[in-house]
Design a protein that fits this description.
The chain is an alpha/beta fold. The chain has 4 domains: 87 residues, Barwin-like endoglucanases (Beta Barrel), CATH 2.40.40; 46 residues, no CATH class; 219 residues, Pyrimidine Nucleoside Phosphorylase, Chain A, domain 2, CATH 3.40.1030.10; 81 residues, Pyrimidine nucleoside phosphorylase-like, C-terminal domain (Aldehyde Oxidoreductase, domain 3). The chain has 18 helices and 18 strands. A 6-stranded mixed beta barrel has the order 1-5-2-4-3-6. Strand 10, helix 12 and strand 11 form a beta-alpha-beta unit. Helix 3 runs parallel beside helix 5, helix 4 packs parallel to helix 6 and helix 14 packs across helix 15. The chain is globular and about 75 Å long.
Length: 500
């Protein structure tokens, strides 16, 4: 087949290989290539072909008839130079699609099915349309607990694994849904000040106003390479870094890139996502936090107990010593919602500042205490008191400063947002409900987490008594358009319910 000249097209297609062919290219007609076909691309090096989804263009400024354009991430996989010859051919459908069709039909898949699906996904043999079919099949047909186990194992096996060379490596994860719940940034310095190993790889926000990595980035560099993580963990016993640079459970990152626009969050996918990341990160002991509340991800105690059993089932069979705690999730934790405002809460707690939010401090101490009790030298029931002593003595703050310095402190933390607006109580009364989803939505409209200083600062919480016209929270924004979006949405629904 006639070779084409390689050309880099400056388009970020985010975890999907995409190629561009001009409609006037002779191969377009002679070989029957069509838009959204998958093609194999070979550069003559003898390496495995790169598989990409084909787009057809009519503009020679994008790609000429004798060229093959590749999106940025696709081009980088070749290591070739612009103009180098490549050959293309039709790609065969991945055999594992048969298992996807079976899942859509409601069948139960085996361990080998999930392994082949994950191998094909990580090797870019699936388009995003096919990945969406897999996700919807799992969500709509449901997953048996063994299927959740098989998917977790397959996601771990198709990526890298970190090995810290120690028998006790602790971690913590919250399933999310509660704005401002930045307990991880308090737990890590408390636990590592005790001497336990807690190398924390965290996520960025998917649908929330901030992830742990977004908030830590206000204070320190979080894009650490695995060798940097090892060096910092060796010196400081822990860190708080973004997990995206370590290639841990890469299938999970690809699945999330499709789940996000579809707003899919199925139980089986969530369990496999969380546990595969923790196992790949080398954790041996894990604490899972499941907040329960009327506007949290989990709405009832019964659903939380079912979810706990599933986590324990998969954890037991993958060798994780796992403990699940069910916590209060009826309102945001802390006062800040958004990276810089949450970081301010964290620093106030660590510095024993009287303005520190009590609920954030107490929840972090309870969770840190449970993790400290993984240490065989800490008696059961003594973890909370030990965690409190580590915090109030200043040892946790000193450890956090050491971790920030080791990761690379931010030279100039973001200044307070230029635009601020107080949302006032429409009547006098007691705050009887706070809608987590609406608070998070307003904070995102204000620009969080992309704009680090954007978000909300909450002045009042559940059961507080407020008078008409008293501020409930302040909107912080950097740009006028975001500011107006957030203000207008808050005018539609303030997210607070007042009563008697």
């Amino acid at each position: 087949m006639t070779p084409l000249k390689l050309r880099k097209v400056a388009i970020d297609t985010y975890r999907e290989n995409v190629a561009y062919l001009h409609r006037a290219c002779p191969l377009y007609h002679s070989e029957g290539f069509q838009a959204l076909n998958k093609i194999e691309i070979r550069d003559g090096s003898g390496e495995q072909p790169v598989i990409a989804v084909l787009n057809i263009v009519d503009d020679e400024s994008i790609v000429a008839p004798d060229e093959l354009g590749l999106s940025e991430q696709t081009f980088d996989q070749f290591g070739s130079l612009t103009g180098n010859p490549v050959r293309i051919d039709h790609a065969s459908p991945p055999l594992s699609l048969r298992a996807v069709h079976a899942k859509i039909a409601g069948d139960r898949l085996c361990r080998e099915d999930f392994r082949h699906i994950c191998e094909d996904i990580v090797n870019k043999r699936y388009s995003k349309i096919e990945i969406a079919a897999f996700l919807v099949g799992c969500a709509e047909s449901g997953m048996e607990r063994d299927e959740m186990l098989y998917l977790t194992e397959a996601m771990v096996d198709t990526g890298k694994r970190l090995d810290w060379g120690e028998s006790l490596v602790v971690d913590k994860h919250c399933i999310g849904g509660i704005p401002g719940n930045r307990t991880t940034m308090l737990i890590v310095p408390i636990v590592t000040a005790h001497g336990m190993l807690m190398p924390k790889t965290s996520s960025r926000a998917i649908t929330s106003p901030a992830g742990t990595a977004d908030t830590m980035e206000v204070l320190a560099k979080v894009d650490l390479q695995p060798e940097e993580m090892r060096a910092i963990a060796h010196r400081q016993r822990g860190f708080i870094a973004w997990g995206g640079t370590a290639d841990l459970s890469p299938v999970d990152d690809i699945l999330i890139s499709v789940e996000r626009p579809l707003a899919l969050d199925s139980k089986g996918q969530m369990i496999a996502s969380i546990l595969s990341k923790k196992i790949a990160a080398g954790s041996t002991h894990l604490l899972i936090d499941i907040p329960v509340g009327p506007s949290a991800k989990v709405r009832s105690q019964a659903d939380a107990l079912k979810l706990r059993k599933l986590f324990e089932y998969v954890g037991d069979r993958t060798g994780l010593q796992l403990e699940v705690v069910i916590t209060e999730g009826s309102q945001p934790i802390g006062n800040g919602v958004g990276p810089a405002l949450e970081a301010r809460d964290v620093l106030r707690v660590l510095q024993n500042d009287p303005r520190a939010p009590v609920d954030l401090k107490e929840k972090a101490l309870r969770l840190a205490g449970r993790i400290l009790e993984f240490d065989p030298d800490v008696r059961g029931g003594q973890g909370y008191r030990l965690a409190r002593d580590l915090l109030e003595s200043g040892r946790a703050w000193r450890k956090m400063r050491d971790i920030i310095g080791a990761q690379g402190a931010v030279a100039e933390p973001p200044a307070e947002a230029k635009l601020q607006f107080e949302v006032l109580a429409p009547a006098s009364g007691e705050i009887v409900a706070i809608d987590n989803l609406q608070i998070a939505h307003i904070a995102r409209l204000a620009g969080a987490p992309m704009d680090k200083a954007a978000g909300l600062y909450l002045c009042h919480k559940l059961h507080d008594r407020v008078e008409q016209g008293e501020p409930l929270y302040t909107i912080h924004a950097e740009f006028h358009a975001d500011f107006e979006f957030a203000k207008n949405d808050a005018a539609r629904d303030i997210g607070y319910t007042l009563g008697e």
